[in-house]
Design brief:
Elements lengths: L19 E13 L3 E7 L4 E7 L5 H6 L5 E10 L14 E12 L16 H6 L1 H4 L3 H23 L3 E2 L17 E3 L7 E3 L5 H9 L4 E10 L10 E11 L3 H19 L3 E2 L6 E3 H7 L13 E3 L12 H8 L3 E7 L7 H13 L6 E7 L3 E4 L8 H11 L6 E7 L1 H18 L7 E2 L1 E5 L4 E3 L6 E3 L26 E6 L2 E8 L4 H10 L4 H7 L1 H7 L6 E4 L3 H8 L30 H6 L9
Parallel strand pairs: 3-5, 6-9, 11-18, 12-19
Antiparallel strand pairs: 1-2, 1-4, 2-3, 4-5, 7-8, 9-10, 10-24, 13-14, 14-17, 15-16, 15-17, 19-22, 20-21, 22-23, 23-24
Length: 594
């Protein structure tokens, strides 16, 4: 017999009736009924109800024991009466009559409850994360995470991928997010960087002649926290393939995602073949390159309407003349909505920092007219033109936003989601995947007004390399793509640029000469010069995948030991100060702030 238990707290059923057994776990709950004390014993697998009567010599000792103490119980399995069966427990048809028990680990007074999943202060939850992880919901989330990773590994192997590990200590990259730096003791004054992603290494793996690579890769970026992004570190399904085009990557990733989400969720997939939406169309129709396609609302451009003489909406007309754009959102059959519905959306938009959302409803009496505060500012012909552009019908309504392009995209995207929620248009029982494709290779930095890479600098530009118009770099599109689900970006990916001369030309556009590229990307450029295959890849975020499957809004709910918003580990007290001896070994001195 095993020293601590014969069964787990999930295993016992009526088939074990009258058997002598041993269980070990945490005291989840106690209920004192005077002559009887009920104890819910919990382990990693489940909960079993145990009972002891007051005539048992262990009764008083067990009665005094603190919740979350760890005990071993020796007892007999008893079948419950019909009226006391607990349908919520897998072990609900039986209970264990306690003969004796042993305390394996005493518990101090708890700083937070464990037996419930009620909301609790984040600083307490993170400081006592080992207690927080005992709670049912988050415990199941972490188990789900483990199962998801195991499933992914198995699926990748089936598809012919080999798992390799890439270095954690590497060189700093001038592109992307802020690096975490590690000082080198053996090379004073020099630093390693923790990898933001295994980008260059996985490309080097392809150059090395391996065909399909993957790993569940840890990545490190010194970025601020968000609900869908952990500060400091995260994990991704990193993969790369040789001799492939964009569609080959899509085929593999879609297969993985469809199998994964069908396996671990009861929600339906809105699309079994993921739609492909160009970046340009995404920004126009959804105001974002992370659209939630469960939302049926579409954004339309109505800028030209406000150049017409028969439109008297002078505020918008002046803004349009100065270069602003007008975006609209159509809502179907909203003629019976009270004015308060529309006014509240307008008020909400102002709270987001916008100037508001104008609106009208299409009506027809003797002629087509607009109902609402601005309805009279439009002629019948202009209303007909609007209806034609946005496919509106009588009884539909339209919201208008006007601003500079970035601002109008932002508010129209937020408004699209807000209005859909107000109208209950989003089906929460679905996953809607899509690909965002045809990203521009370059963009203008809003602060410096200089040209910079818009996505991944190692991406292959679209078109014949001999015919690319380098004089108009903002027109160059790249084989870059994002995979998005329910408005959450799971990953960016690209077909890689494996031609050194082409890479030099592209980097020259953002100010890097050949010597600078050779210096910053020495390993990559050197390797590509020795015969590199066409290759590409992607790296979906494990944390975000599990967050979607667990139906959580915050990534900390699916991360075992997360940091807080300030990138602090309250449980392990990190980051922490180090001794003068350690600093001296690293040839580092700390300059104190005045």
């Amino acid at each position: 017999m095993h020293k601590f238990r014969t069964h787990t707290c999930l295993e016992l059923t009526k088939k074990n009736k009258d058997q002598k057994i041993a269980l070990a776990g945490w005291i989840n709950k106690k209920r004192d009924h005077g002559n009887l004390l009920f104890v819910d014993l919990r382990d990693n697998f489940g909960v079993t109800q145990c009972v002891i009567d007051k005539n048992n010599k262990f009764f008083k000792e067990l009665e005094k024991l603190q919740l979350e103490s760890v005990i071993k119980i020796d007892g007999v399995v008893v079948e419950r009466s019909q009226e006391t069966i607990n349908q919520d427990l897998n072990t609900g048809e039986i209970e264990v009559k306690i003969i004796s028990f042993t305390v394996l680990g005493h518990c101090k007074e708890l700083p937070m409850p464990v037996f419930s999943d009620q909301e609790y202060a984040e600083d307490i939850r993170l400081k006592y994360r080992f207690l927080d992880l005992r709670r049912k919901k988050i415990h199941q989330n972490i188990i789900l995470r483990s199962k998801v990773i195991s499933f992914i590994r198995n699926e990748m192997s089936k598809l012919g991928f080999l798992e390799f590990q890439t270095p954690i200590l590497t060189s700093s990259s001038p592109e992307g997010a802020r690096d975490f730096l590690v000082p080198s003791r053996l090379n004073p004054g020099k630093f390693y960087a923790l990898p933001q992603a295994p980008q260059q290494f996985k490309q080097l793996i392809m150059v090395s002649g391996f065909d399909k690579y993957f790993q569940i890769a840890p990545c490190f970026r010194d970025e601020d926290a968000r609900a869908d992004r952990s500060p400091g570190e995260f994990y991704q399904l990193d993969l790369e393939m040789s001799f492939v085009e964009q569609e080959d990557i899509f085929e593999v990733v879609e297969k993985i995602m469809i199998n994964l989400f069908k396996k671990f969720s009861n929600k339906k997939l809105q699309y079994e073949k993921f739609p492909k939406i160009s970046y340009e169309d995404a920004m126009l129709k959804f105001g974002t390159d992370k659209p939630d396609l469960r939302n049926p609302l579409i954004i339309s451009d109505l800028t030209n309407i406000f150049t017409r003489d028969d439109v008297k909406f002078d505020v918008f007309k002046k803004l349009v003349k100065s270069g602003s754009k007008v975006r609209s959102i159509l809502t179907k059959n909203t003629q019976d909505k009270p004015r308060s519905f529309f006014d509240n959306i307008d008020k909400w938009a102002k709270e987001q920092g916008a100037s508001g959302l104008a609106y009208l409803t299409f009506e027809k009496n003797d002629k087509i007219c607009g109902k609402g505060p601005i309805g009279k500012l439009f002629s019948e012909d202009s209303l007909k033109e609007i209806m034609k552009i946005i496919s509106a019908e009588i009884g539909d309504s339209v919201f208008f936003a006007c601003d500079k392009i970035k601002e109008v995209e932002k508010i129209s995207s937020l408004a699209r989601d807000k209005i859909a929620l107000e109208l209950n248009l989003i089906d929460d029982k679905k996953f809607a995947f899509c690909w965002i494709v045809d990203y521009p290779m370059f963009k203008i930095d809003e602060t410096t007004q200089k040209i910079e890479f818009s996505h991944n600098p190692f991406s292959m530009p679209q078109g014949d390399p001999e015919k690319i118009d380098f004089k108009n770099p903002l027109n160059i599109k790249a084989y870059q793509y994002d995979i998005v689900c329910n408005g959450v970006e799971l990953s960016s990916g690209a077909i890689r640029n494996h031609i050194p001369e082409l890479m030099y030309k592209l980097f020259s556009i953002v100010g890097y000469d050949k010597n600078a590229v050779n210096s910053k990307f020495k390993g990559m450029i050197n390797a590509l010069s020795y015969g590199a295959p066409p290759h590409g890849g992607i790296a979906p975020g494990i944390d975000r995948i599990v967050m979607l499957l667990a139906n959580e809004k915050n990534i900390r709910e699916v991360t075992m030991f997360p940091m807080n918003q300030n990138a602090e580990d309250l449980m392990m007290n990190a980051p922490s100060e180090v001794s003068d001896k350690q600093l001296k070994e690293l040839s580092i001195s700390i300059k104190k702030k005045k």
